[in-house]
Structure prediction request, 330 residues.
Amino acid sequence: MMRPDGVEVAILNHLQAGFPVERHPFAAAAAPLNLTEEQLIARIGQMVEKGFFSRFAPLVNAERLGGAVTLVAMRIPAGELEKVALQVNAFPQVSQNYGRDHAFNLWFVLSTADKGEIATTLDAIEHATGHPVYPMPKKTEYRVGFRLLIAEDGSVHTASWQDPPPREGQADERDRAIIAAMQAGVPLEPTPYDRIAEQVGMLVEEVMERVEKLLACGIFRRLGGVPNHYRLGVRANGMSVWAIPEERVDQLGERVAKLDFITHCYHRPSPYPDWSFNLFAMIHAQERGQVLARAEQVRQVLGEDLLGWDILFSTTVWKKTGLRLATPDS
Prediction:
C-alpha cells in the first residue's frame, strides 16, 4: 500500500479544515508548512490523484442549507448486490453508499437541498431497484466529525471533531451558486476564489465574503482536504448500533458521544419490527479488533440500559462524494 511521505503527512494533518479565505489562500496555507504556493498546489493535486484526499473541497451540511439527510438501509440478495448498489449510485442525491455485513447489507445516505426531495427520491429508488427501502432519519445528532491524524512513526489515528456552534444564517441563490461551483473541489490554482467568481458571475470580494458566511453559519462544516481513510489504512469501519430505552437515549447518547474515538453519534428511531436499534455510533480503526475493543467501552457506558447491540462492518465502499447541488450542466 502506498503511504504518504513526510510532506503529505504534514498537509493531511494541517489542512483538513481551516483553508484560508483570501486572495492567495494556497500561499497563506503553504507558509506554516515551509512550502511555496506552487509546491502546495502541486502536492494537493497529487494527493487527490493518489487517493489520500477524496477531494479538496467544503463539507456541506445539507440541513443547515435548508435541505434534508437520511440514512437508508436495504436488504438485497447477494447475487444482486452489485447491480442494486450501482443503480442506487446513479442517483445524485446519494452521497455515500456502503455494503455492510448484515442482513441489511446496503446502507446509503440521501442528502438533498430540498426537504421534499427525500420522499420522491426514495420512491424512485424503490422503483428503479425493485426492492424496498428502509429510511432511518436521525432524530438527534450528538456528534459528527471525523479527523484523521498520522503520527511521526507513520501510525494512523482517528479522532472526533467538534464543530463550533454555528451562527444564524441562511443560504440564498447566490450562495448556492458558490456551493455548486466549489462542491467537487477548490480550483487548484493561486487565486481559486477569483476562478469561482468568474464561474458564478460575481466579484471575488463578494465570493470570499459569502464563503466566510457559509463557514460561520455551519453550511460549510469545514473547508479543506477530505481524507480517504480507507486509502490511508483505516479500513475497519464499524457502524455500531445499540438498543436502549427511548427515554434514556438522549442522556446516554451524549455520554457515548464524549468518547474520543466516536466520530458520529445519532439517535435514530427504530420503526421496523426486525430492527430494534436506536443509537448509532461510528467507530473507525485500522483493524477490526480495535473496533471491537472500542465497542466494549461503549457497552460499559450503556451498562444495564443496554437491550442489544451489533456492529455492521463495511465490506464495500460503493460511493462517497458528499452533497451535490444541481449545476447548469448536470
